[in-house]
Design a protein that fits this description.
Two copies of one chain form a homodimer.
Chain A (H helix, E strand, L loop, with lengths): L2 H15 L1 H11 L7 H20 L3 H24 L1
Helix pairs in contact in A: 1-4, 2-4, 3-4
C-alpha cells in the first residue's frame, strides 16, 4: 500500500471514529437538546448513499468505513429522537 | 458524468451540508454542552487529512467538499470551546 493510501485510510478512520465520543456522551448524559436533529437526519441519508455508492463501485474499505459511520450516526439520531 | 458519479457527489454534498444545521443551531442558541468536544477535535483533524489527501491525489471535488466541511466543523468546534 502506498503512503498516500495510508493517509486516506487514516483520514477516513478518524472521521468515522469521531462519531464515537458523541454517541457515548449522548448515551451517558441522556441529554441531546443542543444536537441538531436535521444534522443527523441529513447525515444518515448521506451515509446511506455513500454505502450504496461504495457497494456499487465495489470499494470495500469505503463501504465498511461508511457502514460503521452509519451505525454510529443512527445511534446518535435515535438518542436525539428519544431524548429530544 | 455517469449516474454512479452523481450518486457519489450527492452523498458527499449531503454529508458536508449536514453540518450546516448544527452550526446554525449552535450559533443561535449559544448552547453546546450536549456536543462532544472530542467529536469535533478528531473530526477536524480527520478533515484536514482528507483535504491534504485529496490535494495530493489531485481530486478537486473531494478537496473542495471536505474543505467546506472543514470550515463548518471548525466553526462548530469554535462555538463549543466558546460556550462550553
Amino acid at each position: 500500500m502506498a503512503y498516500i493510501d495510508i493517509l486516506g485510510y487514516v483520514a477516513g478512520i478518524l472521521v468515522v471514529i469521531s462519531l464515537l465520543p458523541q454517541a457515548i456522551k449522548s448515551w451517558k448524559t441522556e441529554s441531546t437538546k443542543d444536537i441538531s436533529l436535521w444534522r443527523y437526519i441529513i447525515y444518515v441519508i448521506g451515509l446511506i448513499l455513500w454505502v450504496t455508492y461504495a457497494a456499487i463501485i465495489n470499494n470495500g474499505p469505503v463501504a465498511v468505513m461508511n457502514g460503521v459511520g452509519l451505525v454510529l450516526a443512527i445511534s446518535i439520531l435515535y438518542l436525539k429522537i428519544k431524548h429530544g
